[in-house]
Amino acid sequence: MIFKPKIIIEDNPVSLAFRAADIFVQTAIDSVEKRTSFSVAISGGSTPRAMHRMLGEEPYRSNIPWDKTCLFWVDERCVPEYDHTSNYGTAKSDFLDKVPIPKKHLHPMPAERFPEDGAAAYQKVLKAFFRIDETSFPVFDLIFLGIGTDGHIASLFPEHRSLAEKERLVVAVKGGNPNLTRLTLTYPVLNRARKIVFLVSGNGKSEIVKRMLSGGQAGFPAQKINPVKGEVLWLVDRDAASLLSKAVLVNKIK
Ligand code: 6PG
Q1: Which fold does the domain 6-251 belong to in CATH?
Q2: Which of 40, 42, 47, 145 to mutate to test the pocket of ligand 1 (most atoms within 8 A of CB)?
Q3: 100 FRET partner, CA 20 to 30 A, in 2, 5, 166, 192?
Q4: Any idea where the domains of the chain sit in the sequence?
Q5: 242 or 253, which is more confident?
Q6: pTM value?
Q7: Please, are residues 233 and 21 in contact by the beta-carbon 8 Å criterion?
Q8: How far apart are alpha carbons 149 and 202 in whole angstroms?
């Protein structure tokens, strides 16, 4: 890894979720101040759910400029919204139904179309929202990523050809757990974000966190997160950080 990501270690999953929610709020406020709006892409999986639930409650609910917030997804499983594996459906019940975000600011991935069509349609949504031409890429204010024990991020899985995508913003892939057809943002989008936050919790992730942050052994999908201009923050709890060495912890911030 060439860049030095910042690392924040929280005591437990609850303080981790509070810290992530604080970052969401602060980045929203800063982005609105600088650019009049806030664009954020969120991940699925279980780890962000505690943060999402907090965003739907006070004080976060009132502190986020929802009328200026535009929400996108990093990836989606190709299932209906009511399916319990739907990232959009889960976020909806965790917080979106509880906050005053205008419906037109919600941009779920079109999970019920033929996957290749859904990917192309979401690419169009992104190009239109960010007002960019055919050859340009969107710049999100904030992207939250989780990581799998195999080093996958979003739905970019090890050794899949989607890892080599350089032009399309969104692709359809098959894989993961649950093993489903999915839509995912690609590296050209992820790596242009102004801020990327990896949110990682639990002992089960300690080995991959160590491998990611100790350098060497390139090859995990998460190791191709190397922003063009933005910053990367690893927000991990004590269990997930338990195998990190002192040498790595020099990058730790409060
Ligand atoms: C998804 C993801 C995926 C997730 C990791 C970690 O929709 O599955 O966005 O990349 O972030 O698999 O998931 P957990 O938080 O459940 O460990």
Answers
A1: Rossmann fold (3.40.50)
A2: 47
A3: 192
A4: 6-251
A5: 242
A6: 0.96
A7: no
A8: 11
In ligand 1, which atom is closest to the CA atom of 43? 9
Q: Where are the beta strands (DSSP E) in the chain?
A: 6-10, 38-42, 69-73, 75-77, 106-107, 142-145, 170-175, 180-185, 195-200, 231-237
Question: 206, 140 in Cβ contact below 8 A?
Answer: no
Q: Is-contact 39 70, C-beta < 8 A?
A: yes
Cα separation, 251 vs 254, in Å, equals 10
| b/e 199-236 (16+ beta carbons within 10 angstroms → b) | bbbbeebbebbbbbbeeeeeebbbbbbebeebebbbbb
Distance CA 124, CA 170 (A): 10
Residue type, 4: K
List strands edge to edge, sheet with 38-42.
6-10, 231-237, 195-200, 142-145, 38-42, 69-73, 106-107
β-bridge mates for residue 185, sequence order? 170
